[in-house]
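Quick one:
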Amino acid sequence: MAAGALNELVHEDPSEVRALIQSGKRLRQAQEAAVSGKKGADLNEAIREHRVALDRVQRDLRRRKLSAPTVERATQTLRVASIDPELWPLLERGLLREDLTASGFGLDPALVPARRKEAAPRKPAPPKPDRAAEKRRREAKAALTAAEKRLRAAERELEEARAEVDRARQRVDDA
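Output:
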C-alpha cells in the first residue's frame, strides 16, 4: 500500500521525490567522506537537508489522506530508497514493488573501512572489587530470601484459609 502510494505520487508530481533523491545522494557522499576521514564533509548539513526533503514528501503523502501507518511505512520506504543507489532509479520512476525497511543506523555497512591490524589483543584488566556494591548485593540477597520465606508462609496461610472456607461450605451444605 505504501509503495503504491509513493509510486502514484511520483507519477503525479515527481519533483519532490527527485529533490529527496538528490539530497540522499549528497547524504551518501557525506557519509562516505566522513567514514574515510576526509575533511570538508558536512554530514550534519547533509542529514538536515535530507530530513527537510523527506518532510516535504511526507507532507505530500499526508495530503492524500492515507492512514497514519501507511504514511509511516511510506516514509520508512523513502528513507531507505533515497540513500540506496540501487533503489534510486526505482524510486525516481515510481516502480517500487514493496515497502522497504532499514536495517542498522542508516549508514551503508559497505562504507565502513576495513579494520587495521592491531598488535596482540590486550587482556582486559581484572575488575576492581567494589565493596559497597558487594555489600548491597549481599543485603539484597538477604532481603530476597526473607521475602521468599514470607511468601511461602503467606501461601501456606492462604491454603489453610481456603481449606477452612471449603469446610465451612460443607457445613452449610450439610445443614
